[in-house]
Amino acid sequence: xxxxxxxxxxxxxxxxxxxxxxxxxxxxxxxxxxxxxxxxxxxxxxxxxxxxxxxxxxxxxxxxxxxxxxxxxxxxxxxxxxxxxxxxxxxxxxxxxxxxxxxxxxxxxxxxxxxxxxxxxxxxxxxxxxxxxxxxxxxxxxxxxxxxxxxxxxxxxxxxxxxxxxxxxxxxxxxxx
Length: 177
Description:
Elements: H1 2-13, H2 19-34, H3 38-50, H4 55-64, H5 67-74, H6 80-88, E1 92-94, E2 97-98, E3 111-114, H7 118-130, E4 140-143, E5 148-151, H8 166-172
Antiparallel strand pairs: 1-2, 1-3, 3-5, 4-5
């Protein structure tokens, strides 16, 4: 019986991994990292296709400029789902307006602040103290005294710390979009 199990293991390990599987895995990595649905990712791919430039690079820029992701990168939340919850519960103000849509697309020169409620202030302060060890990306600045974040520019692909081949994601959607 021992010989059969090793030969079965060999046959599965010798199987060639299909191109479809490779593309699907890259797409799923991207989806799960940003915590977005299949439909949302498909819409971002369509927007990236219409824009001038590298579709894969633009796709990553669109995902990185989401409000929930920027709040996470600023250290205001411990995770992207945590940042999404802060936005949904109306703790976040962008350019002097309450924004409760996590997929809100931030632009350069946007100011991100916290609602002037004690509960909101406490949550963000606790998260920022906890996330102090992480470096804030160059495209963002955070003023800890005023508790304000600022979007300096659109993120460059080289600065995204993800080990994802975005071209495989674009190729995955090439049939659908």
